């Protein structure tokens, strides 16, 4: 894919932000999983799974588009489905006592 010179700063900013989302989401997922391993509370297990799904979803569309050549709209749909699933799991983790 070729990017025009005018769109380059936006593309770089997007790549930086998506990388930061992956790193911060990964750290949150790691700490939630670590807390689950320490306490064995199912709510924390669901929480870590939910954050993992949201993090994966937030970086998936661009990766599918850039790396695998998947149409952008298909990538965005898959991204949105993973984010939705992650939020549902997080909501369930908050409901579980």
Describe the structure.
By secondary structure, the chain is mostly helical. Helices cover 86% and strands 0% of the residues. The chain contains three helices and no strands. It has helices at residues 8-39, 42-68, 72-95. Helix 1 runs antiparallel to helix 2 (42-68) and helix 2 (42-68) packs antiparallel against helix 3. The longest helix is centred in the N-terminal third of the chain and has 32 residues, at 8-39. The chain is elongated and about 50 Å long.
Q: Report the order of strands and helices.
A: HHH
Number of helices: 3
Strand content: under 5%
Roughly how many Å apart are the termini?
48 Å
Envelope shape: elongated
- Helical coverage, percent range: over 70%
Q: How much is the average pLDDT?
A: 90
Q: Over all CA atoms, what is the radius of gyration? A: 16 Å
Structural class: mainly alpha
Indicate the low-confidence ranges by residue numbers: none
| Major β-sheet annotation | none
The beta-strand count equals 0
Write the layout of secondary structure elements.
Blueprint: H1 8-39, H2 42-68, H3 72-95
Helix pairs in contact: 1-2, 2-3
Quick tags:
single chain, 97 residues, mainly alpha, 3 helices, 86% helix, 0% strand
Quick overview of this protein structure:
With 97 residues, this protein is an all-alpha fold. The relative contact order is 0.14. It contains three helices and no strands.
């Amino acid at each position: 894919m070729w990017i025009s010179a005018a769109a380059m700063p936006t593309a770089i900013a997007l790549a930086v932000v998506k990388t930061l989302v992956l790193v911060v989401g990964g750290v949150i997922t790691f700490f939630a999983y670590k807390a689950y391993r320490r306490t064995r509370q199912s709510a924390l297990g669901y929480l870590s799974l939910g954050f993992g799904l949201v993090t994966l979803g937030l970086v998936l569309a661009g990766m599918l588009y850039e790396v695998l050549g998947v149409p952008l709209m298909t990538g965005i749909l898959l991204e949105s489905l993973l984010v939705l699933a992650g939020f549902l799991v997080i909501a369930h983790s908050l409901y579980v006592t």
